[in-house]
Structures are given as C-alpha cells and as structure tokens.
Amino acid sequence: MKGLYFWFLTCLLFSSLFNQGLYFDASFYPYHIIIQLLFMIFLVRIWLYKEHAITSYFIFLLIPLTYLIPLLFQPSSVALTLQSFMRASTTINFFIMVVYVLTDNLKSQRVLPYLLHGIGLILSGHMILFDLGILTNGEFIMMGRYAGLLEYANTFAVVLASLYLYGLIQGQVAKTTHMKLVHAALLPLYMLSILKSQSRGVLLFLVIFYIVLLLMLEVKKQLRLVIVTITSLLLAIVLFVLMGEFNSGLFIGLVSICAALSSATGIYITKFHFKGINISRLVVPTVMIVALAVIIFNLLQRGTLYTILDTVFDFDMAKLTGWHTFKERVAFIKDGLNIVRDAPLVGQGGRAWALNYEAVKSYDYHSLEVHNAYLDILIETGLVGLTITLVLFGLLAKQLMGHKREKIMHVLPVLLILCHSVMDFNLSYGFVWFFMSFMVGGYLKGENELLSLGARSDKWRLMINVILMTLAFGFSLLTLILVNL
C-alpha cells in the first residue's frame, strides 16, 4: 500500500503545479475529494493493521480545528471560513500520508531526490522554453520577471531557492557519484531562474541560509561547497547573458553543457582534500558576510555592480534598490493588526484580510493578500490558531533537527520557505504545502515524540488513538460534504 500511495501523492504534487499551484479555491476542489477519500481508506488501513504509531501526527488536526472556531463568533464570511477549513484539513491529511509512505520505505526514499529535482526541472525548464518562445500559451513573465507556473515571481523563486539549497546540501552528503551528479546538474538552471525572477527578498534569504549552512560544515566541506556554488553561479550568469543571442536549439545545448560542467564540478571537487589548510570554520562564513555587506553597500550607492546589473542584465534597479516594497509590507502589518483587534483570540475566519483591509488601510492600495503568512493566520484564527500552529511547527522542528548538525542541515530548505513567508504569501499555495511535506517527510519517523504518551497504560493509548482517528475521520467526512454543497 505504501508504494501505491506514494505514487498517488506524487501525481497530486505534480498535477497541483499545473493548476496555478492550487492558489485558487476552485482549483482545489478535486484535490479535496481525492485526498480525503485516500485518507479515509488510509484510516481504515492503519486501524485494521494496528499501525497506530502514525496517529501521533494526527495532533496536527488541531490546525484545521482552529479554522472552525471563528464560526462560533460571527466570522467575516461563513463560506470562506469553511473554504479555509477545507484547505487546512486536506493539507494536513496530505502531510500525514506523506510521512506514512516515506517512513521505513527505502524504495520511495531513493526516488525522492528525483521527484524533488523533477519539480525544479519542470519549474525552471518551463520558464526557459517559454522565454525562448518554444512554449507560447499563458502569461508567465510578469513585469519582466519570471513568475512560472505559479504565476507569482516571489513564490516561484523561493521554491527554486529551496531546491538550490537542497541540491547543495545533498551533494555534500551523497555517497555515490551518481547522486552527486543528480544534485549538482540543475544548480545553474535553478540559479538562472532565481536571477530572472528578480526577487531580492529570496536572494537575501538564500544568502543568509547559505551562510548558516557554511557554519555547520567543517572547513574542507565549506571550501568544496563554495567552489560548487561559484561554479553554478558563473554558469547561470553565462546563460543569463547569452540568452537571446543564440537560436533555441543552440541555447538548449548550452544549458545541457552547463549542467554537465556543474555535475563534473560536484563530482570531482570531492577528490580535493585541501591539505595544509588549517583555518577556523568561521573564516569562510565571515568572508561571505563581508562580501554581502559590500554588495549591498555598492548597490545602495549605485556603484559598479549597480551599473552592471542595470546595463548588462537589464534588471529593474529602481525596484531592486528602492524601499517602496518594504514600506508597503510595514503598512500591511499595521493595517493587519488593526483587523486583529476586533477578534484577537479566535480571529475573523477565512480570507478576513481580503474582506476587511479596505476599511482599515492606511493609504490607497489594492492587495487581496497581506503578504505575511503568519499575520494572515493571526487574522483568520487569532492568537489561539497562531499559537497552536507555531507550537506544532516547533515540535516538528525539534523532531526533525534533534541535536545533530547534519539533521539540521536537511531542514534548511523548508525553513527558507517558512522564513521568507514572513514577507510574502507563499503558504497560500496548496502546492507549496504539498512540496514541503515531501521535503520533510523523508526525515521523519513513523513513531515520534510529538504526542509522547510516556509510560501511560495501553488503555490510555487506545483511547487517545480512537479520539484522534475519530476526529480525523470526522474532518475528512465534513470536507467531502462541504465540497459537494
């Protein structure tokens, strides 16, 4: 069953990418039905075969519960609140099933890197083909920026940035030449797409997490990582500059050559042992921090780098170096907190920002998203919902990280998305939740400490399992009923 469910869930992940990332509720309807039916069958399976270890993850069903509570206190919209509950319920059920199918399933875990890089190849490859004019249907370049199948530049960029970081990390720990090749091959294509998105926030977060990654590595691995990174960045710049200079066939050939060069670097750099280098592990990260500070200063002062990006790369430097977007985000936060004051504990229900921001906005703007995922949760579910969500995220992070540095590294790509969501609405995309579920699912155990029952009796264990499974079944049944209303 695990193998079959793995492929079902994989198909749902990939198909969601071609439905605008499941941003719109209308696109989500068939996924509600399919995922909830799969989950109900899954519940029967784990009950019959007494696979109760996985039920500790059912504690995450508290999240969709927080979207129902506002219904008791006159939400901004009953219909949209129910829509948000359905999204939360379906997303959590998808996550639980991903954890189940990847636990102790070596075959699926071996396929996982190909699956994740497959997402990256589709996202970045699609944009290259669209930019070259090979694909013509749709509008995927918006205001000169790559927006991709998600049709939003910043979320498109942050997904690829997480995959770029994932490729770098897995390339460091991969034990076979073949896997080193797989993880390094697409790095230039990811970086090219990130640059083409012109998302300065994503680039900044990527650099910060890159420095964090360096701090976790010993010096020799730091140097290898830097060489692989510089190689992929230079290859991406070459592709950026030469795009449009060749016909489509030649450029695709050039992309293939760059992928081969990146793979070769990823493979052969492991043969360098950097003998005689005896420096502190803080040196390389410190150099990176200084370099970042110099770059930012140069851009703000409109120095040489500013001129190169403006003339050679044709970046919109006024936006990249301006403060308008930052001031806009600050205004959204202030206005959002004004909405929170009306129902601070339980929130105002689904899509409360879109329904109420006009009444509180501090200047004339139009934005159906608050551009801050956590403020959005606070507005919709109040302090109760935000607290429960953050506590569960914290418990999950503790489970993932443990106390081992190498385990913490594997979490960085997902943390990158979650941290960037402080300044954007990445978490409004169902695809992003599905994607993160696969990202972390391979590192979780079926039996975990999220709901530790300690030395309690079997009677208590059975009672809690029954309660959790009843809640899970009830939420699934309610979601299916709501979809058909």
UniProtKB/TrEMBL annotation:
Residues 253-389 form the O-antigen ligase-related domain. Its main location: membrane. Keywords: Membrane, Transmembrane, Transmembrane helix. GO terms for cellular component: membrane. The chain crosses the membrane at residues 29-48, 55-73, 85-102, 114-134, 146-166, 178-195, 201-218, 225-244, 250-270, 282-300, 373-396, 408-440, 460-483. Pfam families: Wzy_C. It is found in: Membrane. It is a multi-pass membrane protein. The keyword Aminoacyl-tRNA synthetase does not apply. PANTHER family: LIPOPOLYSACCHARIDE BIOSYNTHESIS PROTEIN PA4999-RELATED (PTHR37422:SF13), TEICHURONIC ACID BIOSYNTHESIS PROTEIN TUAE (PTHR37422). This is O-antigen ligase-related domain-containing protein. The lineage of its organism: Bacteria, Bacillati, Bacillota, Bacilli, Bacillales.
